[in-house]
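Supplementary material to the annual report.
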Amino acid sequence: MKDPINILIVDDEKGLLRSLTAFFEDDGYEVLAAESGEQAIELLQNNKVDAGVIDIRLPGIDGREVIRQAHHLQPHMKFLIHTGSANFFLTPTLKKIGLAEEQVYMKPVQDMGILSAHIQRLVMGDA
Amino acid sequence: MPDNLQYNNYSENSSINAKKDAMQKSIRTRLIVAFISLAITPILVIGTVLSYKSFSALKIEAVALQNSEAARVSIAVDDYIRGLEHVLMLTSQAHKFMSLDQDEQQAILEELLAYESRFEELSLLANDGRELIRCNRTYVVRSNSLGDRSTDPSFQQAMALRANYFSPVYFSPKTGEPYMTIAIPLQSFMTGNIRYVLIGSVRLKKIWNLLASISRLDNTIFIVDEKGNIVGHPDPSVALSGQQYNLSDKSNQDTYGLSGEKVIMATKRLDFGEHSLYIIAQKSVSKALALARNILFISLLVVLISLVAAIFLSSLVIGNIIRPLQHLTSVTRKIQQGDLEQQASYDQNDEVGVLAQSFNDMTQRLKMSIESLEHEINERQLEIEERKKAEEELRRLRNLLGNIINSMPSVIVSVDPDGKVTQWNQEAEKATGVSAKNAFGQNLEELYPRLAKEMEKVHDAIKNRQPFSQKKIVSFADGQKHFEDVTVYPLVANGIEGAVIRIDDVTNQTRIEEMMIQTEKMMSVGGLAAGMAHEINNPLGVMMQSSQNIVRRISPDLPANIKAAEECGVVLENVLTYLQKRQILQFVEDIREAGQRAASIVANMLQFSRKSESLQQHSNLAEIIDKTIELAANDYDLKKKYDFRHIEIVRHYAPDMPDVPVIVTELEQVILNLLKNGAQAMAEYFTRSPHKDTANAKPKFEIRTKLEHNWAIIEIEDNGPGMSRDIKKRIFEPFFTTKAVGTGTGLGLSVSFMIVTNNHKGMMEVESEEGQGSIFIIRLPL
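Predicted assembly:
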């Protein structure tokens, strides 16, 4: 058996966090769920994570900052951005970390299988 | 010589200079000629006179000399012959000769012959001609040789004349010498009878010596007798040769001498009884007049020297006279060439000096007056230039003004107080179709009927001198609403009465304004949507993702599901059957679908506020349209529901259309949307009610591209049902739809509108009448 992929899901919408967590667990991922940026950073400091599905608008530190710190803590980490904000755009910092437009998903995502497959691609491609 | 040098310099100049030189030369020549004439003429005259005088004097002198010579010789010859006569006379008388006896007589005669060598022979004849005594120098005379000489002409003549007789000269046949015979009759004192005749032969040769002693080289004196025989000559050979010298044709003094040359001659006649001798003194003319010739020669020499001296002096003097003139001329020439700084120099207070001085004064004054003239001309020039500039400026301004008025996008018309047109610009011509020429003097109301209502206000404005304006006056033309702004400015300046009327067609502007209002309305909707999007998208996500999880977690494919069912004591298949039986799965699917629709509405609304990040690319409109038509043909909905493939599509693409800056995907979306709407409308129209007009009418799109000024225009025309004015007004509003609920979001056209107006800064409008089809017009800036 191969080691399962560890992912971090950050979203302050509980319903979404729950459904994403359930879907990814059903797909065989090890899932860490955080309702805020701070919580996410804490989890990242204690756990090895391969990829993250990050919401941008968060109550405390926002998703961009989470990605920045996550990249700092675990540089190998891959990210998908999962945002509901119509005005979101990739900052130069995010681009530098390696994010591309295709890694940005606008809510609502009808088929979570797409996200799963993308993560699979990112992590496997990296390995 | 400096003069020549000057000439050489001048010769490089123009023909005027050449003329001047000629003139100068002629002055010089004339002066020299005059000078020389003055100097030479007296010399010539005096020389000529002197020469002539000396000639004639010398000639006279020469003639006188010859005369005196001739006289001298004649005296000598006379003395010679008379002396011998005298000797004979003395001899016959002094010694009582006649009384002596014959022997004594003979002795005396012999003695005389011995004593006087000039006698050749002496004879004493008796009065009957008997020869009594004869003594000869050369031979002894015997008494028996004495004969009768009564026939002797000398004897006869002496007897007849009773006086001394001289014979003509005769030449001795023996010696050829000349002789003369003198016969002297001896008379008795008592009776007076001739008793004897004494005859002596005289040797004339002795005279030759005399002649020789007198004659000089250039002077010939000789003697001829009456017959022209040369009797005596300094050169004995001439006398002896028996030459003749005919005196008869030698009357004048200039004649030819014995040797044939021209001579000056004098003649002296000596008479001896009946016979004569001529003494001729000759001198050759050339020799006689040698002195005169010398004088002539000297005179000529003097004249020549004087001539040379005169030429030299005159050129010196004339040069001195001419030089200041030449200087003056050269200065004049320089002044003529415009160099007024030239001054004529002069160092003498003579006439030329005075001329130079007054010339300088004149030049100075000329210079001054030229300077003042130039100054004046410059000022005048400046004035003229300024005036020209002013005129130019005026013309330019007039043109500019005309251009400005003509290029105004407004109708600009001016009228007099009676409302007659006085100014009519191009826009007015365009708006009315009446040319400015025809408009002048016409009533404005007639030319511009739309203004008829406003004419009263125009008159009021003129009367009250108050501008007046009225905005968006509505009129209908060509079935379309027109809006015009009318402004009336009364003219109050400089007594020009009247008014300027400006009419702006604001139809388009008004339409654009309406569109802007529309756009802004939608932008605010977009802003609202953007704010809402996040809040709505999260719950929608929860709804849809939860639905996905529900479906997945009841699926028997997931081992965790089976495991959980076992733990609960149920069989998963049964649960599934139950859910299907109670349509629970269907409800879940409905939730998902509803969420999806809501999500799509939100997504469309977000378009209104989205700042386009996509880059515009210069693209070929025709290609985009063709590609979109292709997309539409393959669209599932269009294919199945609206039978798109059976719609006739006519394309009119402008061939000169340049590439247009567009966001390709967005423009495709707009066109697809329009095609969809049109196809849908036509499908309903043609299926719902069989077409009134023609039974076999077919749905048709006409798609055109046009180039208009700086706009690229796309027109998509359908022959569908068209729309009422009310619908047309609201067609681009978000959520406005004429379709049955569920067939459209009501956002398609408004999104298209936003894409065109907001993202492309273009314009979008629709032209439609009910039952006439619709034309959607997209204008994109180039």
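The mean pLDDT of chain A is 91.
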